[in-house]
Design a protein that fits this description.
Chain lengths: 132, 100
């Protein structure tokens, strides 16, 4: 059974500034986990930041919630196993998002996909309930 | 926490208007308190986060995004006027905003 579907669109060019933040990581750490920032640093692409943010937004929508209602940005992580264009990604729920997944019997292997355009990216997430 | 003076009120207004004018590529004269952030300006939550960060730095605020998130769930921000009100409350109350 489908638990929720979420779609988000972002202009990925706006995330280019996040590539060169130097020591100013406090702000980034309010959106991305340390594990994500480490993962992104392997690819040196603003698309990692954009896609992760877009993913988090789409998952919030699939949960039927706003950020801060139960989970926060860092509770939903998107990790890349190859460059962003290759779509080798892994969605990880932690903290309050993991609690929500466990509580509502949601399949943690969510169906996720994205498209990258010249200016925009679109990310979609489908959360399913696991049959008991 | 800071007492909200007329000067702070004016500063916040100017920062918010300039921020949205630049991010949304509109003239700040086209923005008013009743301007809808999402429908009229095509704004989004990333702008919201960046603006909060800007105020955190400017006023050296000790507030977690979680507290702002909780407040905004109960008090959704849709217009520039609502955003100004929330930013002033953040400056005035910081983390205590969740007590409202």
């Amino acid at each position: 059974m489908i638990y929720g579907v979420g779609v988000d669109i972002e202009n990925h060019l706006r995330f280019k500034k996040y590539l060169n933040v130097g020591g100013e990581t406090d702000y980034l750490l309010s959106i991305y986990s340390e594990r994500e920032l480490q993962n992104f640093s392997q690819y040196n692409s603003h698309l990692c930041f954009a896609l992760s943010f877009c993913c988090k937004e789409s998952v919030f929508k699939a949960f039927g919630q706003n950020w801060g209602e139960e989970c926060m940005w860092c509770d939903i992580e998107l990790l890349f196993n190859d460059s962003p264009e290759m779509k080798q990604i892994e969605l990880v729920f932690s903290g309050r998002a993991k609690e929500l997944v466990d509580r509502d019997n949601i399949n943690p292997n969510a169906v996720i996909d994205y498209s990258i355009g010249e200016n925009n990216i679109i990310f979609q997430s489908v959360l399913e309930c696991i049959k008991k | 926490m800071a007492e909200i003076t007329d000067q702070i009120r004016e500063e916040v207004r100017e920062i918010v208007f300039d921020f949205f004018a630049e991010e949304c590529e509109v003239d700040s004269s086209e923005i008013s308190d009743s301007t809808h952030i999402f429908d009229d300006l095509d704004g989004d939550s990333l702008m919201f986060l960046e603006l909060i960060e800007l105020f955190k730095k400017k006023y050296d605020l000790n507030i977690e995004l979680k507290a702002i998130g909780k407040y905004s769930v109960k008090n959704p921000v849709r217009t520039i006027g609502e955003l100004l009100k929330m930013q002033l409350l953040i400056i005035e109350l910081e983390d205590k905003i969740t007590d409202l």
